[in-house]
Amino acid sequence: MIGANLLRGGCMKKSGLVVGVDVPWVTSWTDEPVIGVRPCSTVQGRPALVQMQNAGYGRPQYSKNHLVRKRRSILEMLCPMCGEPTTSNDRWTQVASLAPAGLLRRAGKASGLPREIEDKRVLLDAGSIAPLHKACVDRSLKYCPHLKADPNVNVMAFPARWAVLPLLIEAAPMIETATTAGVGGAVLVITFLQLVGITGRTDRDWRFRKTPPRVPERESGG
After folding, report:
1. Average pLDDT, integer, range 140-159
2. Which residues contact 89 (CB under 8 A, 6 or more apart)?
3. Mind listing the pLDDT tens digit for each residue in 74-91?
4. SS3 134
5. pLDDT of residue 212
C-alpha cells in the first residue's frame, strides 16, 4: 500500500515560492507526476490514482490539484491553502452550494450518500474542496485573480457534521491488488473525495426545485 508521504520526486530545482503561503498546499507541482493506480492509505487501501510527492520543486500547476494531498485535506480537515488543520469554529467554504439531499441524489451528484440522510435535508455541497481557515479565505480572496472574478464566491461557515463520498473513474490497474486480482480490463478507482456538510435545515418542497448548481472543482486560493 502506498502511504500518503512515501512517493517522492526529486528531479527539479526547488522553487522560491513557499508552499502554503505563495502557492496553495494542495496545488500540484511539475516534479510530482501522476504514476497511475495504486492502493492508497488515504482511502483505506482501495485502488486510487496517486502521484509523486515533491511540493515546492519545479513549477506550481495552479490548474491541477495534487491527488493525494487533496484527499488528505478532506479526510483530515486540512486547510487546502496552508495545509494546517482547521477547527470546528474556523472552517469556511468559498464556492460551495446549498441543496437538498434529494436533489443531489436525483442529479447524480451524491452517489453513496448515507441512507439515513433524508431527502429533505439541506446539504452544503463543497465538491472536492475542504474548508479553509477564515484568514486563508480572506487572503485568497484578496490575492487570487480567479476568485476575484468568480461570480459563485459565497463565503459560508462549514457545518459541524459532514459526509465524505468517493469520486470514481474507470482505469486500468498498474499493479495487482486484493481488489483487482483476477479482474480483466478497467476497474473503478478513486480520484478525489466529495465533501458535503450536513446542515440543520430541511426543505420539504425539494421535489419542486431545479437541478443544483455545479460546484467548481478549481481549488480555492489560486
Report:
1. 90
2. none
3. 999 999 999 999 999 999
4. helix
5. 72
